[in-house]
What we know:
Oligomer: single chain
CATH class: Mainly Alpha
Order of helices and strands: HHHHHHHHHHHHHHHH
Number of domains: 1
Mean pLDDT: 85
Shape: flat
CATH topology: MetI-like fold
Radius of gyration: 25 Å
Amino acid sequence: MIERTPILNAVTHTVLFLGFLVAVLPFVVVAVAASHDLFHVNLVPMPLLPGGHFWENMTEAWTRADLGHKLLNSLIFAGGVAAGKVFVSAITAYAIVFFRFPGRQAIFWAIFVTLMLPLEVRIVPTYAVAANVLGPYQTILDVTGLTDLIAWISGIRLDLQFGLLNSYTGLILPLVATATGTFLYRQFFLTIPDELVEAAKMDGAGPIRFFVDILWPLSRNNVAALATIMFLWAWNQYLWPLLVTTDPTHATAVTELKQLIPNVGGVPEWNIAMAGTLIVMLPTLLVVVVMQRWFVRGLISTEK
């Protein structure tokens, strides 16, 4: 048992308070900068007391970057990625744990190894597939000579083209696979007692019913934790939406923050940029506050 003394409690609370200050200081600086005018925000050092231009800067950032439409795009993108990751990882872990087939452990470790391959490492092949989903099939036809054979028989040369750029599908679909979620669900499913599985079989529950009626309700804390993590991860993505959405119609709020930063030689309106950053940051803070209880339960619950 950890000993509790007044001195130890004071030291603990001091460390926690210092950690809180370190964590909250960037948010305070952003909020203060968003409340100043152009002159005061460029002073060195910048005043640390709030100014009187907060709502003016927020309105300007909202209008200039078209954040209303871009926040909706970000919500669709992040929500779609989170939902896709939760469903795909749950189904994958369910198959690995509860179905007996050759090579299932090798498949799991192959999935687990992809943790060492972040999006930035595989960005080029992923973009190539998104630009033309049928490209690999076209390559197979070309290598095997079937393209020439079909052209010789029919006089038509196949050129398979189907891209996902500038679409919600292109934003979401390439990111729905997750080794982290698969590992999280696998560890939880391994704690399910065999007696529960046998009882479900005796009651006539098939694989789909067992998953939907028993496993899914039991794993609601895991769903909340994984959905929260993946929503925040997708919301903060910059590189992938920047590559896939060349049309501003499908751009996300994070990528559109660059509209608030001046080009070379321009005046740095950091007050407007910080106001836009604060707007984009608020939805993620709201998600963390709302989902905090279920997020913590999903990570440390004794049910796991």
